[in-house]
Write a structure and sequence with these properties.
Blueprint: H1 2-12, E1 17-20, E2 26-31, E3 35-42, E4 45-51, E5 53-58, E6 61-65, E7 69-73, E8 77-84, E9 91-97, H2 100-110, E10 125-129, H3 132-145, H4 148-153, H5 155-167, H6 172-179, H7 183-197, H8 205-212, H9 216-227, H10 231-249, H11 254-260, H12 266-277, H13 281-291
Antiparallel strand pairs: 1-2, 2-9, 3-8, 4-7, 4-9, 5-6, 5-8, 7-10
Helix pairs in contact: 1-3, 2-6, 3-5, 8-9, 10-11, 10-13
Length: about 300
Amino acid sequence: MAEELKNIMASLAVRECESPSALPRVTFSRHSRSQPRAPAIYQPGVVILGQGRKRGYFGPEVYEYDADNYLVLAVPLPAECEVIASPQEPMISMRLDVDAAMVADLLLAMGDNEPGMFPWPKGAIAPTPLTSDVREAATRLVRALSSPMDSRVLAPALARELLYRVLLGAQGGLLRALAVRHGDFARIADLLHRIHANYAMPLEIDDLASQAGMSPATLHRHFKAVTATSPMQYVKAIRLHKARMLMIADGIGVAMAASRVGYESPSQFSREYKRFFKTSPAADAAGWRASNTPIP
């Protein structure tokens, strides 16, 4: 089953970096060489590797996942990512994007009323061993995605089955926290979504604390427990990643990108960008466009 999953995923990851599938919320990735540690944005979802290894750096925590350990994420997180791969053994992965509505629908069908069934998570990300149930569900999904008709008829239900198996697993509480709108974790998750929707607006710690219904000190403590970073560092990371996308994907200039993500000073933007990405914004954008490689 593991070999079949790897082989089908490899056939669907048709190009370097990301390859979309027939199901919009499923994406395949291929990397044929190792990539050094670099900033990235992790989105809520489930990541399963067929081959190779990845390391995610979240503050002081380091998470490694591979063909035997998958990753579950409950909220969008800026982090750093490292890929371990080679042309002989490329890193092959599948990502299932997850949102609160999908999880809530499953919880309703499951009858989420057993105390302790889903322990509340301590953080927003966790690798966990790939059980036979999750592997088999993932294999059925990628098998369906190999056929145009099966993709239309079967894949949506099989993606739901995969999510169900993950919910029943060791990190089910992480996904449940996406849909259950109470508790400190849920308040931080709501705040993260507000930040993503309003990152270009002025965002101050007192305003964020008020939106979360916490004091600034309490917000800082709970925010760091979930994201491994402070609220304002999170805002900065989101703005810089968004600016990078604008420059590379849309071809806009440095000053315009800075303005669109909420910076009043292009020079401050350039300094913070270089500190974050280890290169100037203009050089970074030019390098990505010249390589014709999608942003990871």
